[in-house]
Amino acid sequence: MKSVFVTVGTTSFEELIATARSPPALQALQSRGYQKLVLQVGRGSLPQPSRSSALAVEAFRFKDSLDEDLRSADLVISHAGAGSCLETLEKGKPLIVVINDKLMDNHQLELAKQLHRDGYVLYCDCSTLVETLESMDLSALKPFPPGQPEKFASFLDKVLGLQ
After folding, report:
1. DSSP, res 137
2. Which of 107, 106, 67, 112 is nearest to 88 (CA)?
3. 84-96 burial by CB neighbour count: b if 16+ within 10 A, else e?
4. How far is CA 29 from each of CA 65, 66, 75, 136, 143, rounded to the nearest angstrom?
5. Which residue of 18, 23, 122, 157 pairs with 163 in a disulfide if CB–CB is 3.0 to 4.6 A?
């Protein structure tokens, strides 16, 4: 069963959860052959179960580890937190990074743009997520070089202007 895992990390990103559950997003996912949507909502509200969904939808707040959810996902949609991005990329999963444009000092945008420029991720904001799902070519994404956390740390320092 092809599945999509949506994660917001330890924060709340209600707009991402609502957009991922919207009928147009579910339709776009279903048309791409996905059958299951797993939502990690963090501090956000747990969505009400919906029976009319084209996909099986599950939701939870937190787990000790997201390792199993990431491993079993065929596509990951994530907020642009550095930890979430790195963990997903290290598992070799296709990743769509969704920017929270409501954040003030938005380092997430810089991180997402750089990962996209380097060919590792697709990125969008909530207003363009459905369009991204409809037009995505996951085969164009490059695999992230494994086991080099120091490179990622250096990359983050550069993005954040610390280097």
Report:
1. -
2. 67
3. bbbbbbbbebbbb
4. 25, 21, 10, 11, 22
5. 157
Residue 109's pLDDT is what? Answer: 83
Which regions in the chain score pLDDT beneath 50?
none
Give CA separation, 7 vs 30, 31, 69, 140, in Å: 19, 21, 10, 22
Sort 6 into a burial class: Cβ within 10 Å, 0-12 / 13-18 / 19+.
buried
C-beta separation of 62 from 42 below 8 A:
yes
| pLDDT reported for residue 110 | 84
The length of the chain is: 163
Q: Check residue 38 and give its pLDDT.
A: 95
Question: pLDDT of 49-87, one tens digit each?
Answer: 766 567 899 999 999 999 999 999 999 999 998 889 989
Q: How far apart are CA 2 and CA 78, in angstroms?
A: 17
The DSSP code sequence of 12-58 is --HHHHHHHHSHHHHHHHHHTT--EEEEE-TTSPPPPP-SS-SSEEE
CB 68 within 8 A of CB 37: no
